[in-house]
Design goal:
Distance between the termini of chain A: 34 Å
Number of strands of chain A: 0
Helix content of chain B: 55-70%
Shape of chain A: elongated
Number of domains of chain B: 1
Oligomer: heterodimer
Number of strands of chain B: 3
Largest interface: A-B, 23 and 30 residues
Number of domains of chain A: 1
CATH topology of chain B: Arc Repressor Mutant, subunit A
Strand order of the largest sheet of chain B: 1-3-2
Order of helices and strands of chain B: HHEHHEEH
Strand content of chain A: under 5%
Structural class of chain B: alpha+beta
Radius of gyration of chain B: 15 Å
Mean pLDDT of chain A: 86
Number of helices of chain B: 5
Structural class of chain A: mainly alpha
Helix content of chain A: over 70%
Low-confidence stretches of chain A: none
Largest sheet of chain B: 3 strands, antiparallel
Largest sheet of chain A: none
Strand content of chain B: 5-15%
Chain lengths: 205, 102
């Protein structure tokens, strides 16, 4: 049947066009690096006793800078190894998608640095929330459950915000460091391990 | 429309491998040779042959550069290629639409 053949061809075209628009660099090492940076920052922050709003903001902003720079280097090495341009159209789309929410989080961070506390409301929760939004936005151009990961971070930051309203939570910077470590460190390590295992399985299939 | 509408389809694009290459290029400004080869799981020779056919038809252009001393071959659709691909897709849609209308 001609229409069946035509429909099949259109489906092939649609699938390939969608796949081409996806960012396909290996995400596992990037996630593991971000997770490691987040975990070390949390442990370091607690160990060094960083317990003022400005120091807390500066410390975690520096950690974010290290994480972004590391992710950039890893992605760039992959593109050089594969002989492909780093700023491919999918890479540009991902960057454009994540920039607005990351900029919003950065503005809250600057407010923390400028005004001091309250760190939990001005820095920790907004950054986690906007970061979750950025990951979710990137998920439109990435495979492998990225959107779900974004939703998970948004849900955790939302639940933590509600918890602060209705449940007595311990005050002090140790809790804030622990929350940042959980979201920006351990969660990323877990996702990186998941990606690593499933990518390895896929490549051996 | 001719009852044998599939016969009216552009034969250069209609071949499976070339259709895949054209589809990928239609979704991107340009793609590297390795990206095409790896995504479509073709051999170097297959990709080269298909690209040469598309190039001879004036549908794609090939550019070579040497960033950091490594050869990078990129392929992109020409205006004629984009137009031919749009016409190809449009004809497929018309075939389906006509069959549904009957």
């Amino acid at each position: 049947m001609e229409q069946d053949a035509a429909a099949e061809h259109l489906q092939v075209i649609r699938t390939l066009m969608e796949r081409t628009a996806l960012y396909r660099r290996t995400l596992a090492p990037v996630m593991l690096f971000i997770g490691a940076a987040g975990t070390l920052a949390g442990i370091g922050g607690a160990a060094l006793g960083i317990d003022s709003a400005r120091a807390f903001g500066a410390w975690w902003l520096a950690a974010a800078l290290v994480a972004v720079a590391g992710a950039f280097v890893i992605a760039r090495r992959q593109s050089v190894r594969d002989g492909e341009p780093f700023w491919s159209p999918p890479a540009l789309r991902v960057t454009q998608a994540v920039l607005p929410p990351l900029a919003a989080g950065f503005l809250f961070s600057l407010a923390t640095l400028a005004a001091g506390g309250p760190v939990r409301w001005l820095f920790v929760l907004p950054n986690a929330f906007f970061y979750g939004c950025a990951v979710h936005a990137a998920g439109f151009f990435m495979p492998r459950g990225m959107k779900l990961f974004g939703w998970l971070i948004i849900a955790i930051s939302g639940a933590a915000g509600l918890g602060l309203r209705f449940v007595d939570t311990p005050s002090g910077f140790l809790v804030d460091h622990a929350f940042m470590t959980a979201v920006f460190g351990l969660l990323h390590v877990a996702y990186g391990v998941y990606l690593y295992v499933t990518e390895a399985r896929k490549s051996t299939a | 429309m001719n009852p044998k509408a599939l016969l009216q389809l552009d034969r250069v694009i209609h071949e499976k491998g070339r259709l895949a290459i054209m589809s990928m290029l239609a979704a991107s400004v340009e793609l590297s040779f390795t990206e095409l080869r790896d995504t479509l799981e073709m051999t170097d020779g297959n990709v080269t042959t298909h690209i040469r056919t598309l190039q001879e038809a004036g549908y794609v252009s090939v550019a070579k550069s040497y960033p950091r001393g490594r050869r990078l071959t990129t392929v992109s659709l020409t205006a004629a290629g984009r137009s031919a691909f749009a016409e190809y897709v449009s004809l497929l849609e018309r075939i389906i639409h006509q069959a549904r209308a009957k």
